[in-house]
């Protein structure tokens, strides 16, 4: 099962971006009290009870768009096409408007589940303000206050229940999705950077149709193959098209397919065009890979087209702009001629091995003790944070759980220090590493009143004893 895709639609200024930010726990969508701010689709990754979802934030729909608003409406309609389910958001304060009625009319023609989400419920009587929204024809509205998070947890439960995930362990679900043999390698990148050419070269045959046009293919394909007795599965996000249909209109680059491939891959190869260099969309893709915790290999393609001076300039630029992922190996390749492609496999194996290695608890605790000895955690309210022991909490990415006292107050800078220390000591490369903290249980928690009563009883007995002696 791929990560479900949820589109948030509705008229302008009803709180779609606020809900998007709340679900994805980010501030990727611009939020302000002004209508029409979101013109393009925004994609984010939500993790609900360990299950990944892809959430799409859209511009407002009014039903009578023209000019720029028509382009915004086109983005919203494209998001609805990509989604597995749709959240139709309305504003309970403003009530049903003509725009809401127009959007509902459009959504009724969509053969997908639509959840009516009634926002801005704070300070309102739900029985009074929700009654009119039943007339939109989508059943019971789900009341929320996106800005404060009220009702969002219940909405998340609805998402889990609809896709049958409420009783599924995320680790077991991941195992079900990993039917493909060997290491699963996701190949991602912007249109026309050479993804399909690289896939063909790695396979040694033309399994993926390649044309010199950006975005000529639209779906993902899983290709199992064997290399030197070792099994792999390539996930090509460019996909395959029948040759007879190439004359049709070029399809758009599918972000959804890319993000789903990232979720299902164990190692991701990000393909960058050396001639164009690193652009903003490449950085967004890297951010998605890191957020998903996937191992990463960066392939700079079309390297043979550059002059020596241009190569030096590209190397300096990459070192400067990719300094936030120093653990990711970089390869300079030519997918068309095969130069450097074979070297990718060593980095793929190393990254996969690092992401799936099991570490002993005593070894992790020893590394933690040495790290604390070299650099102690800061004081919080006059008390030193105490970190006691560490153990592994998961793989792909490696997750290390550190137990101690006042762990909720550990600053982000110290978390990064521990991540770098564990990475260096365990020689982990090619994959992100995550350090989480857990507070130790206080054996006396909840016993304060009981202990106080005992002390009072002892004091009373002592006073009675003293009176009897007198």
The overall average pLDDT, rounded, is: 81
Biggest pleated-sheet summary? 6 strands, mixed
The global form is flat
Question: Based on helices, strands and strand pairing, what is the structural class?
Answer: alpha/beta
Instruction: Quote the distance from N terminus to C terminus.
Output: 82 Å
CATH architecture of the largest domain: 3-Layer(aba) Sandwich
Task: From the alpha carbons, calculate the radius of gyration and give it in angstroms.
Answer: 27 Å
CATH class of the largest domain: Alpha Beta
Helix proportion range? 25-40%
Strand order across the biggest sheet? 2-3-1-4-5-6
Question: What would your notes on this structure say?
Answer:
The structure is a single chain. The chain is of the alpha/beta class. The chain has three domains: 5-162, P-loop containing nucleotide triphosphate hydrolases (Rossmann fold, 3-Layer(aba) Sandwich), CATH 3.40.50.300; 180-354, Rossmann fold (3-Layer(aba) Sandwich); 357-470, K homology (KH) domain (GMP Synthetase, Chain A, domain 3), CATH 3.30.300. The protein has 14 helices and 17 strands. It has helices at residues 16-24, 68-82, 98-107, 126-129, 152-162, 170-177, 195-203, 255-264, 280-292, 308-321, 344-356, 361-374, 412-426, 448-469; strands spanning 5-10, 42-48, 51-57, 85-91, 114-119, 142-143, 183-189, 221-227, 230-236, 267-273, 295-301, 329-332, 379-380, 383-384, 386-394, 399-405, 434-439. It is flat, with a radius of gyration of 27 Å. The longest helix is centred in the last third of the chain and has 22 residues, at 448-469. It starts with a strand and ends with a helix. Helix 9 (280-292) links the parallel strand 10 (267-273) and strand 11 (295-301). The model is unreliable at 32-38, 65-69, 173-177, 239-253 and 442-451 (pLDDT under 50). The strands form four sheets. A six-stranded mixed β-sheet has the order 2-3-1-4-5-6, with helices on both faces. A six-stranded mixed β-sheet has the order 8-9-7-10-11-12, sandwiched between helices.
